[in-house]
């Protein structure tokens, strides 16, 4: 079987960079140690190797279909859901008392990474665990008893049902309505689109975590409530009956074809019931818990597909002879060289590796922060929360936007073969393209970063981030070999700070349109710097291991490769900030205007 | 019908920027004027509108299949080939005496643009005209009489048959063999892969322009000859008989599915005959004529798909309401705004437009040079040739690499809908991805640019280019509004020159591996500057029209839009040179090494 991720790299990031075992010092995680973490990763790898990876292509080739109101998915999906359900992987992060394993999200994020790298078409369980988590967090004991266990054992599917035909990025405009009924439930009416895993035959029930507006609620986001709307509702006798949720359409997609994206209609026969989760009109606040989880999950999907693409390209480049090295062009009698020896190919591969491992490290940083939010208190907890909030849009965007580019470079490594269905790259190229769109497009994430996260609490979040980065800079400066890179990153931090300062006056004046005009470029700049930090962090760990442990053979090569890729990132990717900063400080306004004539 | 290109823009580029009518002063083109040019473009548009565009999606959905040795393509392909054959469009650029219209390539390139924007899956006729042109240029009168007319009327298909399984980018390694026969023809044996339009049922014969090695020929590229190898050969009685060319495989591809890519086997039964074109061992020289045409043709395909994507995104953005403007977020009672009013969306659209119209202008510059090569003599001709040779890899690469990115931004404009098959963007995203691979990957083009074109004849080609750019700078400087942009471009030229100077010593030392290590980044830098020149040229023409013709209404808006997009290109795209130049002048070598450990 071809490689699609590196366990050695996961272990490096877990234990040498992000110090996963430190989490076990907190009482909540004290049942765990490196051994239990390893067992979970082994179990995920086992399922990924046997049930997921072998079906990567045929899940794509046999996409879900909607016929006579029924959605049929690839039979392997059911096997997969049973395996992860029985293996306890859906609810691994849940508390023991809810049937979970109290596993850190840091480990859970690695489980997602492994599985999405093996077969991202099986994008089902993040939605289920997110939905279960929302119910567990805000639901009544009746709701919890009814839903959580069935979700976590993989027999029921969870979804997030936000988007409506007229309200995609603009949740304030959703119109799905909820009217109170005498029995305490609500009568739901409306339509939702793009509901991933929104209906399928691999489970016995589908449980939608749905945003709707209670009749008479305030306009805008302050009038949105969150409901549990199952496909089948429980009768008083404990049996399941139809809940008037109809699959009215299925989207055929460019990629990620293993998971159906549904158009759902609720209440066609005035018989769709929903159960309010938490308080009325606070639905969007609750939903943000799931959305933030999902954003990091989508970032992880980007990193995972990019990982699978990297190893596929690397394998090809090591085995494909073509041409001679540039200084040996005239040696026609010599055999052709493997293309990995061509600098241009090596550049593309190093780019892929730098994106994959830099993204993964950033995502693990975020996952670790969410663990710390859970186990810390007071100001410490608040700081962890702020930092996580700041990093979430970045951890969603960098791995997906750069993932798209890295998979494209991976396809390019294969030349004409990369464009054919004989190799997996073309599918990865299709699959990953949704990730900068899912759960808030890059533009939305960028507005969240610059428009909200940079300014909340008087700009405390970036201060916290800079403090964290300064810790890494201090550590790096103790190594002669890393000092030049620490200096580079310091310069980048100053540049980022200057750019931010040049923009903030627009926000202060209330001119948000001007302030956020180039937020997407700001996000790109911010992402490059943040991942440079993650690479320096990896550099410190690698340099430290080389000096203190004196490894040999493959182990030494692993650490040398880390340092090499860190250097690559600094020399090839970081300079892109120059152009971005120039544009962001440029005073020419070209994208704000009422008239459309500029686009004739 | 949705718009897929702008005739107004084509006319602007043809007559106001590239002065197409000036060509008609040369005797070879004297039969033409703006009216005949317009008729040809009308005729192409008519075919594109009625026969091509309406089948864009179903040609993709019903891809060619190989069954029992026969390749079936979509029935519309035959209608298309008949129409362009009868309309004289395949051979429009051929001399009158060969049945052509002696039309400038500048106009021919616009015909390709229109057709590839309408339906790039019908990528057949550029291959046919290229093959016919090779035969007309280097063939005996017998070969010309046998093939040219049937190719130009669309009943026979031409191909370029270069690539072999073991020789893609490395043509010196091709092994298809040719053994002289008593009758003057050659016995051909070997395999070719990725032969576009290499076999199909919409024509009566397929004529391969094939590279092969005559037994005993020198090794490497100096032993390659060019043959005409038809699927069916003419008997002495004038009938067609099988020529032992077998379709052994068909590639299923990510995109451009309308055109089959074939794996062909020649001489399985020792009965495949080829006819030598020109002299033995000079085949690659001849083939470069077709390859250079094809490279510009692929660049044009990139620009054309990007054009279709731009208009599709623009239409969506004008009609899709979502959210409110950023300074009106709280006006929940107001209707949602069209997304074109969001700066981030407008930025993406302006990026698309800047790529499409900048690429198209560069391609037309190249086409005009090929016309001048034909009609000029002596030093003038030589200079035109040198400049065309320099621009060819750039005109192939910028429109394709940036085209891929611009179509991706176009898909992003549609959000989730862009990822579905309900809109055409997902197909365009798939279709365009081959263009940075076809006819020499971006890496190969970059090596051609830096490794060959920058240094031939003592570096005369870039001198000629800089002289041309200086003419535009001089013209721009006469307008107060354009002077800042002329200054920007001057600075970019100096930067490009400095970068080049910093690299040339490696070539002088014979260290080509180091010299070309980052050639792809050099290409990116070179492309940005070259297209900045094309945008300034368009700016000069637009500013001139605004000042001298005092246009109103839509005409004024057209020119204002040109100036606006020029500004966008300079403010958003040109700053990318900063990072590229920094990397290219950086002394750290990270992609040259014998060991593979850096990629663990």
Q: Could you characterize the architecture of this molecule?
A:
2 copies of one chain form a homodimer. The first copy, chain A, has helices at residues 7-17, 34-52, 56-61, 75-86, 105-119, 125-138, 141-152, 283-319, 343-375, 378-413, 425-432, 442-453, 456-477, 483-508, 512-516, 519-549, 553-573, 576-585; strands spanning 65-67, 70-72, 156-161, 177-180, 186-196, 205-214, 225-230, 232-234, 240-242, 245-251, 261-266, 273-276. Helices cover 55% and strands 11% of the residues of chain A. In chain A, the strands form 3 sheets. Chain A has a 5-stranded mixed beta barrel. In chain A, strands 1-2 form a two-stranded antiparallel ribbon. Chain A has a two-stranded antiparallel ribbon with strand order 8-9. The radius of gyration of chain A is 24 Å and the shape is globular. Chain A has 600 residues and is α+β, with helices and mostly antiparallel strands. Chain A has a domain at 442-590. The interface between A and B is large, with 109 and 110 residues.
